[in-house]
Every structure is written in C-alpha cells, then in structure tokens.
User: Fold DEN5B protein from Rostratula benghalensis.
Amino acid sequence: LAGENFDQSPLRRTFKSKVLAHYPQNIEWNPFDQDAVNMLCMPKGLSFRTQADNRDPQLHSFIITREDGSRTYGFVLTFYEEVTSKQICTAMQTLYQMHNAEQYGSVCASSSCSMDSLASSIDEGDATSLAKLQRYNSYDISRDTLYVSKCICLITPLPFMQACKKFLIQLYKAVTSQQPPPLPLESYIHNILYEVPLPPPGRSLKFYGVYEPIICQRPGPNELPLSDYPLREVFELLGLENLVQVFTCVLLEMQILLYSQ
Assistant:
C-alpha cells in the first residue's frame, strides 16, 4: 500500500506502482531517475476500478529540477486497462471479503449485538446500511471486470505541453484501437525520440504523430520563455478572485505556496 488507507474499501485504496519499461535506457545529459519518475507519474499510487467507475484517461505534467538548476519536463497520460491476471482478481475479492467482514463487525458493535443473535439484533437502520454496503461496496470476480491504472510518459527538455499531449493521446489510441496503426508502435516512438529535431528559437516545427500532424513552436531569443500551458485551466482551477490575488502577490514580491492533493 502506498499509504495507511486500510479503512478505505479496496477499490479506493492506492497500491505501490513501478516503472515497467523506459527507453532509451540512459542519456548522458539526462540520467533516468526511476524512483522520481515513478513517484511523479503516479503521485497517488496504483489504483483499481471496475466497469461501474469512471475510467477516462487523464493527463498531467511534472518538472524535475536538478541541483544545477537544469530542468526536464514530464507529460503523463494515465489510463485504465483490464486486469487479465486471475490471481490479482482473486486477491481483490479476498480483500473485499476481509473489508466487508470488518465493516459488518463494526455495524454489529454499534448496535451492541452478540454473535449469537445477529439476525434479531440488527435494527432496521443497520440492516439498510449493511445492504447498501454489500451492494455498492463489493467486488464479485464472476460479475465485475477489474481495471488497473497504467500510464505512458514523455520526458522532454522543453515544456511542449500541447505537442506532447497530442502525441500521447494518439499513441494511446493506437494501443487501444482494434485496428493496428499504419506502422509498428516502436516506429513512432523512435521517430519522436531520434528523428524529430528540437525547433530552433523563433521557429515552428510540424511533425507527424501516429494519426495526425502535430505543430510546436519555440519562442525567439527576445520573447518570453515557452509557456505552453492553457490559461483557461488556471482560471478553472483557481477561480478569478484567487488568480487576481495570486497575481497581486507576485507583483508585491510576496512568497507564494500552492498546496494541492
């Protein structure tokens, strides 16, 4: 477990994640920090879902700042894929049986009932809550489909967010599509890593993803630094009043701390 969350139902708990593969193995100017990338790709840990839960892909980004002040940027697309391991599905059902047994015991304890008279002692309210618990807080291996979170990440020297987002979405579609893409997946990964150059300052670059062309632009020497993040999301997340307050604090050179789950 990634945290002490045993009180949560098994599908609401988070589990330890790990890097399954990365390519290339290492770059001289950008050594791969497996622990840092793992933590930043899945900051909340590995999670499970069923067919009843929302499983829409989510995109987020992160920054790795080194001791010399250099930065690399990560862009992550998290999605859910079906669990094919019977062992994991059985383990999830066992976790639920243990969790529900504990919840059942706490319901009985709250009504001060003894084990000899469970059926007669649970009042109507407890029986209703127990029924809801069994109906909504359960996993049946014969009825439910189990899904687990997985992510693909692109690490870049500059924050080309929109280009990376489009490439990752196209790569995800190629992975999950019934129809295979025109070329093997490795071809597209090799292309973006070795054949697509970094655009020179003040120039735009157009390259082809898996299905559609992608355009990225790099500011010139006398322009503001690259900021490819949409302002609309900032307004949606912080709200107008908070954003004005943060901007005022910036102008007054105050210290600002952003705290997020």
Observations:
- DSSP finds eight helices and six strands in the chain.
- Residues 86-110 form the longest helix (25 residues).
- Residues 1-104+132-157 form one domain.
